[in-house]
Amino acid sequence: MISILLPTYNDASVLRQSINSMLNQTYKDYELLILDDGSADNTLEIVSSFYDSRIRYIKLAHRGITETLNSGLQQARYNIIVRMDAGDLSLPDRLEKQLEHYVKLPQNTIVSCRYAVFDKKIRYTVPVSTKSDAIKKRLALHADFAHSSVMYNKEFILSFGGYKNVPLEDYDLWLRTKNSAEFYIVDKILLLIEYTSGRLSTNNILQNYENHYALQENYYKDLDTEFGILKIKEKIAFRGWREYFYGDKKRARHYWKKLALFILISPRIIAALLFTYLPDTVFLFLKEFRIKFRLLYFYNYFSQENIYLRKQYAVLIRSI
After folding, report:
1. Of 92 and 196, more confident
2. How many CB atoms lie within 10 A of CB 118?
3. Residue 261 — pLDDT band, cuts 50, 70, 90?
4. Looking at the domain covering 2-195, what would its CATH class be?
5. Residue 318 has pLDDT above 90, yes or no
6. What is the C-alpha separation between 251 and 229, in angstroms, rounded?
7. Cβ–Cβ < 8 Å for 213, 242
8. If residue 30 lies in a helix (H) or strand (E), which one and from where to where?
9. What is the Cα–Cα distance from 298 to 4, expressed in whole angstroms?
10. DSSP secondary structure code for residue 85 in this structure
11. Which of 2, 70, 113, 188 could be bridged to 30 by S-S, CB 3.0 to 4.6 A?
12. How big, in percent rounded to 5, are the helix, strand and coil portions of the chain?
């Protein structure tokens, strides 16, 4: 049995689509906890319109996402936890496919999946490495998997104190557990995430970068033991990427120039290095717009995977 944690706060306009996508899963043995973090909209009305005994609506005082998730962990009846966010869409076989892998892996494994991003239509897919060592290395920059994509063992997560009341509570959790956890990404797109970055203000985006950078600080003191980044040039490259994504683009150039001729075998770094000379507003837009992912998606627009994805999205939207 599975407990699905779906926190929500004034998300009535998009909550129905997320609940619907979970109720239409091919795997049926679960409870769906709608964790209402003190919403002031018609969230209860939306939830009450579904007549399904697997739904548990839990009304909480407004205390934020961290306390809401920790409350969900405490109230979950089952040890296999799945995360879901209001607005996102799970493809019908998501639970089935993730559980298929989860039961074969050690109980300290955090199982996720590949995902795509939508806003009225599919905008892009997110290419990731599914190799465990590569996933851990990439945690030095960010998680290659979305929070709402994970399936994990409740007792394992609680042994680390659950979620902490900090910005980026999910990334903080992965950093705290990474030396004890294994990470596995199912090599199939099973989740569609609603695009929200374009609606954030520049100040919010910059604050998010600052939070990200600060959270990484202690872990960057020893990249060898923390993330298994052993080679000197690889360390320099990672420090440059950290600055590029969350810090100072001039410092990114400073690190990458140390690579000298080695930079010639990395087209990604060369392209990013050139981007750092753009005006700040343009540089920020290109990062947030995920231009690389969008171009890759359109390049592979007629691939079997992307055609299937668009069909699934159309079915999910029609079913709302």
Report:
1. 92
2. 21
3. confident
4. alpha beta
5. no
6. 20
7. yes
8. strand 30-37
9. 33
10. -
11. 2
12. 50, 20, 30
